[in-house]
User: What shape does this take?
Amino acid sequence: MKKILAILAITLLFLGCSSKSEDTTNVEAKLAVGKSLKDLKLNDQNEKPETLSADTEIIFFSFSKPMGHACNEFLESKPADFLAQHHAVYVADVSPAPSLIKKMFILPDLKELKFPILLINDDKLSAEFTKGMDKDSIVVVHLDNYKITKIDNLKDAKELEALFNK
Assistant: This one.
């Protein structure tokens, strides 16, 4: 009986740690100059649905753990309303993390932060946002009335700081 319970527990652990596997090969890139992000709707770290406003000028994305840490450290050093003051939005892709790790560690930690983070938490949506993007950089999307006018790749928080000090 103990062996059966151990096998069942290990099986559940592996199922809980896996992320959803979807076919993400034939997706259309969401981030491209000229495209509109007017219909963008993502949940924040408190599971509240958020959309962009017409005055949003900058969206910066972290698609990897190191870039996510860099963005979080940058924003932790700023006032809570920094993003709103700069007409900016921060989006973090947490979809690569195993679901159990997200539920037990990542999401509770993000809820403690003083600034809003919109989350990509779906493999297909992640593929649409990352297609053609450098995942090892902070991807900065410049907007004019929801329309993408420019995309930059920043290598660290210092470059992110410089972006907002222009």
Notes: The beta strands are 41-44, 49-51, 58-62, 88-93, 118-120, 138-144, 147-154. The radius of gyration is 18 Å. The chain is about 35% helix and 20% strand. The CA atoms of residues 43 and 63 lie 16 Å apart.
